[in-house]
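Our preliminary data section would be incomplete without showing what the modeling component actually yields. Below, a chain of 285 amino acids is followed by its predicted structure, encoded as tokens that our downstream tools consume directly.
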Amino acid sequence: MNPVTMKLVGDDAILRALREDITYEDVSTMAVCPEARSAEVQLIAKAAGVIAGLDVFARTFALLDESSWVDVRVQDGEEVEPGQLLAVVVGDVRALLSGERVALNFLQRMSGIATYTRRMVRALEGTKTVLVDTRKTTPGLRIFEREAVRLGGGCNHRFNLSTAVMLKDNHIDAAGGVTQAVRAVRARAPFTCTVEVECESLDMVREAVDAGADIIMLDNMGHDEMASAIELIAGRAKTEVSGNVDAQNIRSLADLGVDYISSGALTHSAPILDVSLKHLRMLDA
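Predicted structure:
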């Protein structure tokens, strides 16, 4: 992750998580370790998957103890196996104990997303279709979850409402139709913005093409209807499929020949990857 981005955005998210976990002090740690002492602890994989978020993991400890450091044995995006040593964390034992759960929460969540993304990307091998994520992310953690998708081999859709135009059903209803919505966007948005239109029927697809949409999303359509829509579009706009996409059905959707498949499941339904901090050892004994 870009270190400037981490400093500007990531630190705020990490600090919020630490404040949530430590209201005024870590009672358990301060009872057994009231003074600063140097220690190390091992980060070990407990399941197979793709590791992601080691920089976030390390930064969590650095915010508690700026002298802490992490000796990483793998890189983000690598596949790991159960029992594998991933890193060794060194620092004030109080920071290691107090930051453990927050650091692991970030790493497990990001690694789970990367692992699930890798599985879906592999299902697309041999096709032209690109897998992208959605805005269905955990509030406040989008920057981390989107990075995890990228590390898993997927691509990022628009980051937020300010970075691209997507006209969904409610926008279209508010404007009075697809044509009116596209016309309104073209009159207001910068000319550099692409315009994507979410379509739920062939009539909407036809209108979106005629209105000059750059990308047409086929949302929750049946397989045969999507095939007809792609034929209707005939290369005049990029195509995207969305709606209840998961690892079980993604290949059949890619075989339609669409340009993009977006899946909210990447960030809202991926299980965590189990990792653990074990074998803490005091270094100044």
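The chain has two domains: 3-120+271-282, 121-268. The chain has eleven helices and twelve strands. Preliminary results of this kind motivate Aim 1 of the renewal.
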